[in-house]
Amino acid sequence: MKPAPFTYHAPRSVAEAIQAIGTLDDAKVLAGGQSLMPMMNMRFVSPAHVVDVNRIPELVHIGVANGRIEVGAMVRHAALLADGTIRRHCPLMAEALAHVGHVQTRSRGTIGGSLCHLDPAAELPVVASALDAVLTVQGPQGTREVPFAQWPLAYMTPDLAQGELLTRISLPVLAPRQGQAFVEFARRHGDFAIACVAAVLTLDARSRIAQVTIAVGGVCATVVRLAAAEADLRGQAVSADAFTAAARHAHALDSADDAYYSADYRRELTSTLVARALGIAAARAAQDTPQ
Asked: Which residues fall within 8 angstroms of residue 71, CB to CB, at 6 or more apart?
């Protein structure tokens, strides 16, 4: 199929883009287009206006400042995956990106597009949740920063008001004694996840768990943090038993049955992946810990 008729706009600055999406009725922002264009072709969505932000150079940058990685919203998945700064300071991102679609998808898809589309089975929202990313949004009323925990309002609904544009994503750099891990189960490589888990675990001087975050995707209507499991693990020694016990919190997730997988299957699968991700993250943290 072909999309319904629409008017195309190509602003050259963030200010022009905000002006367009803030004043045009029924406008959609085109970032990488890997989700929007198929949806338009199948007429799941039929916007009257498409605002293409691919020609805005200020949205394409990767840098490190004050212990944070700053990534422009229009940086492509492929560029993130190939970037030495990301691999060195945010290995969780690089590990997750290897599961994102295929070469063609990663060559066009963008980090901002993924976080705004906010598919709960996509990899980058899970990474952003586990890392407590901070998102910078610009709009007619100025600039505001949104912690990722407040970003998803509902299923595929980000905290973006009329005329607002996601411009930057801020992530913490890899800390000493910290391990990061991303694991996913999908029907085929490159498919959306049936379940995926990102874990970030930091050890203290006694090799006990000082901090840990566990984010889950593909199971609920939004990305979910296993806050109870995180609380249980803090202060504990690293052990398979501790990780297995923490992983049982996944059985309480509010998952739903679908045409392919039951809710119970997804919860059991998630529990297995949580224990696995924690074990990998702990092993990586230990490698950075003086013995």
From this structure: 61, 62, 80, 111, 168, 169, 170, 171
